Amino acid sequence: MESRIRKVVNIMYEKLTASLPQENMSDEIKYLMNRLLTLKTKSSLDPIYIGLFGSTGAGKSTLFNAIIDQQFFLPVSGSEACTSCIVQVNNTRGENYEAKIHLLSLEEWKEELKNLVELVKKPEEEEEEGEEEGDVGEAVQKIQALYGKDAETRPYGDLLRAKLLVNIPAKKFILLKAAQAKELSDKLDSFIRCHNDKDVEEPAQDDVRTKMRLWPLIKYVEVTIPKSDVIPEGVVFMDIPGTGDYNSKRDEMWKESINKCSVIWVISDIERVVGDKVHEVLLTESIKAYQGGMCSDIALVVTKSDKLHLKEYLRERKVNNIPIETKHDAILERNTTVKVKKSRGMKKKLEKTLPSDSEILHKPDLVYTVSAKEYWREKYLTKEETEIPKLREYVRNIYLKEKKQLLMDYVTQALGIVLLAENFNSTQDMVNHYRQNDLETFVEERIKALEKEIEKCFAQLEQPLNEGVKKAKSSHQNVYSQLLTRDTGYQGFHRTLKAVCQNNGVYASRIFARIDLNSALAQPIYDKINPMFANIFRIQRGTRSSLKPCLDMFKDSVQEKIRDVGKRSKVANDNCKLKFFIEETNIILSTLEREILKKKLDIYQSLPLSIQSDLQPYYKEADKIQGQQACKKMRNILKENIEREMNRGLFERAKEKMKMRLQELKNMIMTRLRMDISTMLKLALSHREELSERLPDFQNEYTEIERIHVALQRMRRS
Ligand SMILES: Nc1nc2c(ncn2[C@@H]2O[C@H](COP(=O)(O)OP(=O)(O)O)[C@@H](O)[C@H]2O)c(=O)[nH]1
Ligand SMILES: [Mg+2]
Question: 597 and 506, same structural domain?
């Protein structure tokens, strides 16, 4: 269907350009040409992003490789550390494998270096010896890779003047190409593994060494694979590390990537999913994306289901009535247990945040238990039992669902255009001057009524917001005692605290996971507003309190009025003007809905952003503290000032920010509707006598587009 509709659009465009003089086109025709051109050049229907979201070592890359049926493709971390950057994998119609490694600019690197130097600085009061681990260890490795041995002991200013051991290419990216998956994988591997060859002091001259030293500068990697049998074209996978990053540029990307995903898979390995809390944090992050971003589906994917020690399992096994003898049976039994338990936990969490009748709460499968290892080996499990095929099916279903919607939008656009062209060609009039006025008055009235409805809809947030502010005020102490005093048993916390201040309250530490003081302070407000927020912005036909039914009602009433005007003017139901009106209102509203979906993020994030900007001076102040008891002093500065700001309306201001963003959204909706509908009326009322041009005959194209449109509608209903 897609290729057929594209062909028709192309033919229309060619016919139009061939028959019209290129100069002195009337505005109406220009408009028509532009719409057609936009549709024609829309290279593919928007990609669908699926995020694999999990900590390093969870098995994301291995899982991805199994899904695309390439055992050795994305480099797997194994025992050696890999840089944990975002990897985006597109599949296209091309023949080749390609990887584009995007690098930080020198400026972006300098900003990161400042943080790294702070992290590795040893304060007087601390006397650790031996190998450093976690954040500090990584910081040391990064500095050494780019400036050589012992560079971590040099001051920041010194390093700034020093020459890097590698050159940052002017293009800021490195392009790798290969004909085979394995070949690209090998090339990529040497870039993203963090091997520091410690003996080498001289600047990296040859290729190999440059590669080996570049890893600290990697911002993200974009991989392109050829057309695949297992993954539909247009599906983009994103390998997203769990904590974000302490480089603010990478952290920005991290957030953007999560918010871009239509589907988020939280990845956790089976041994950690039971005790560890990391996947809980990731789940919370994913639900945020569901609220603010494009995400409409979340699943927990538990990896490495093959990792099971039969004897241990049997000893600890609680249900003893059914005997189990083989590892195969034990794995399957544990899979079921994990699914039941984790689904329950996930549901509980989702129920707290979303309206109780949300689609996601009624999905049959929230949890998958997979084994990529067994997928290749088939020693204990069959391919089916590894659940890799099931995940592929999942991807296919999501793809079909979204693609159908995208294609429907595309076809509706095409239909709108061909109807407009027909309309320009027709001599028949549907609306006389009197009825035109009537129609315009009606639309303006409906827009005003809609404005009231939207205000009422947003006003539902008022009470939860107030409750949230109250709650935030009474619980802020928990927040900083939880976040700022985690140093029990670990001496390095003041470095982390320093980094938190340096980055305005946000720091992605490898050890303490993600610390976000601003979001943590706003959390009680979120807890109160979440279900209502989700309800207002839900995409499915929601309850009466949602935004969508307000817009639907507006659309229905305008379309009804148009039909009514048609009836009074005695035009047939298939009159092209009448149909143009109907389809064009569909397009206007669905475009608007997509805009709203994008704007939603600004609204949702307004709370912590407001808090962050209010607290910025104190982060700066705390950041300057040096010497004895620095940690305690920093903590006190934050604590006292947060308290004071709170009494001066920190949370109230955050609330007002959110309301302001909602107001802006409402205004945007009003402006857009007025503008688009007035354009539509103007276009619909132009006809042949007024136009200097004669358009070619589009009857065949019209019939073809309409046929596809009807077929698609029928498909959607079934
Ligand atoms: N036993 C077992 N090990 C796995 C499986 N999937 C991944 N691993 C191992 O887990 C480690 C981390 O995998 P990787 O895909 O690099 O994780 P990532 O950091 O999340 O991308 C590697 O040593 C893999 O071999 C699995 O299904 N079974
Ligand atoms: Mg990986």
Answer: yes
Nearest ligand by distance to the CA of 64? 1
Query: Which element (helix H / strand E) includes 191?
Result: helix 181-192
What is the atom index within ligand 1 of the atom nearest the CA of 374?
27
Total of domains in the chain: 3
pLDDT digits (tens, 9 = 90+) for 604-627: 999 999 999 999 999 999 989 887
- Residue 78 CA to ligand 2 center (angstroms) comes to 9
Which residue from 76, 189, 301 has its CB within 8 A of the most atoms of ligand 1, so it is best to mutate? 76
* Beta carbons of 418 and 39 less than 8 angstroms apart: no
Residues 24 and 166 in one domain: no
Residues 102, 202: one domain? yes
> Which residue's CA lies nearest to atom 3 of ligand 1?
304
Task: Tell me if 304 CB under 6 Å of ligand 1.
Answer: yes
Q: Give the domain extent around 478.
A: 426-686
CB distance 272 to ligand 1 below 6 Å: no
Nearest residue (CA) to ligand 1, atom 24: 78
Say what the pTM is: 0.89
Task: Tell me if 687 sits within 8 A of 429, measured CB to CB.
Answer: yes
If pLDDT is split at 50, 70 and 90, which confidence band does 487 have? low
pLDDT of residue 686: 66
What average pLDDT does the chain have?
Answer: 87
Question: 72 by DSSP, 3-state: which?
Answer: coil
Residues 6+ apart with CB under 8 A from 536: 457, 458, 460, 461, 545, 546, 547
Q: How many CA atoms lie within 13 A of 73 on its CB side?
A: 24
* Residue that has been written with the tokens 């719409």 in this structure: 35
* Residue of the CA atom closest to atom 4 of ligand 1: 304
102 pLDDT above the threshold of 60: yes
| 601 inside domain | yes
pLDDT digit string (tens) for 415-431?
999 998 888 877 666 66
State phi, psi for 86 to the nearest 5 degrees. -75, 130
Nearest alpha carbon, ligand 1 atom 2: 304
Q: Which of 53, 61, 62 to mutate to test the pocket of ligand 1 (most atoms within 8 A of CB)?
A: 62
Q: Does 83 sit in the ligand 1 pocket, CB within 6 Å?
A: no
Interval between CA 57 and ligand 2 midpoint (Å): 7
For residue 627, how many other CB atoms are within 10 A of its CB?
Answer: 9
Residues 175 and 190 in one domain: yes
Whole-number pLDDT of residue 541: 58
Tell me: do 489 and 636 sit in the same domain: yes
Question: Token digits for 200?
Answer: 């080498």
Which tokens is 431 given? 């609306």
One-character DSSP codes across 577-592: HHHHHHHHHHHHHHHH
Atom index in ligand 1 nearest the CA of residue 79 equals 23
Q: Which ligand is located closest to the Cα atom of residue 307?
A: 1
Q: What percent of the chain has pLDDT over 70?
A: 90
User: Which H/E stretch holds residue 18?
Assistant: helix 2-19
Task: Report pLDDT digits (tens) over 286-329.
Answer: 999 999 999 999 999 999 999 999 999 998 887 667 888 899 99
Closest atom of ligand 1 relative to the 386 alpha carbon: 27
